[in-house]
Amino acid sequence: MSEKHLTELPWKTLAAKQGLKDPGIARALAEFGKCAEEDYEARLKALDAVEKHAGAMEKENKKNKEVADYLGEVLREADRGRKAVELLKKSKDKGAVKEEAGEDEEGGDLKSKLLGGMKKVKGHPPDAPLMEAMVCKAGRGFGVLLAKKVGSGQKKQLLEIFKNESGQKFFSGTCEWGEGEIYTFILDTIPTGAAKGLKAFFREHTNNNYKIRVGDASGTMEDDLEEAVAGAPPVAPPAAPPQPGDPMALFTQRFKALLPKIKEAIAAAGPNAPEIKLKAGEAGASAQKKDYTRANELLDQTEMLLKSQGSRIPPEAGKQAEPKKGFSLVDLQKGRLGWDGLRKTVQTQLQGLEKEILAGVRAHNEDETAEDQFDEGKVGAAIKTLYTILDKLDTRLIDKLDEALNAKTEEERRSRHHEAGKIVKEYQDFAASDPTLATVDENGFAQ
User: Where are the alpha helices (DSSP H) in 289-371?
Assistant: First the structure.
């Protein structure tokens, strides 16, 4: 999730450039930047303040396109951030309540528990909290138990189910039932193969073929490709091709024609495999919603990724074709998120350094006579020069990686990636030669 508009410095730069009187946006953004990742209450409170001040200022500056557009992005990122934090809070905020996980949902055999849990997921009232899920990955297998509140009781039962397996890992989250009769599990992180593994678990223990997908708070979603077009009508045989006005049949025929190549690419585990699986699953989900324009756009992207990966039958039995070299869309996305997070971390660290230095100045001044005291105002102004580091380590890399992610062709993507490499080199040269950074490294306050 991008938060490049939820940082203090870029907004202060724009406000100064435009000569704006800030009602409190910078202060709210600074507070948001200081919040620990798992301090959900503080993050939500800070986002409240950001949305309040940014919303009011956006209305006042509707005629100033640059300011209105920027504040629009602030509000959109704040809204996405709020949804992600609320979901994480719901999944993580268990504490003692988790230890009292409903005993009424622990009784009975495994089949009854699973059928009862899925029935409650499907029938839960819209205004009620979502059913919670505890997922266990053991070896290549998956298991899950559902309850109003999951905790040690469910973990103990899953350990018993997988007592003969090693390396059990647990993932907490929620489960909801939605359009297309799909059960969606939102977990703190997505273990590889979770959708297919959970489907197999339910089939083994309940004899039901539930439609399942697994996602996380960022919006990433993993579907079982075998069910990506579940519910679509059979493809017409060659003697009776789909009619031009039948978008569902046309999409289904196209998807099924690509499915063998998609499976082959995923099995080969090439650089684009995760993105191919994601795009194909999203295409199937869009088709289920009858959004065939979007579904076919996603299939176009899937085909482009397949061509980029060079998916084909291995030339020799037992020997895989060497995947095409280069960075996949997943690599680009990881790089983009990594740099975005690093800039936020640097800003937080600079704010911490500023706080420590000023605290040291105040402590010094308390023990000294007036003539030996430091001018706190001048020291504070000097410290502000530290923030010029972020002027150099700017958001150009994020923007360039965004261009690469949105490129229409592989050639264009490689070109944008090459340009991003030049920006990285510029950053490296700056970090190696900047005297301010060298001073920070040598400063005792920065330890």
Answer: 292-309, 329-367
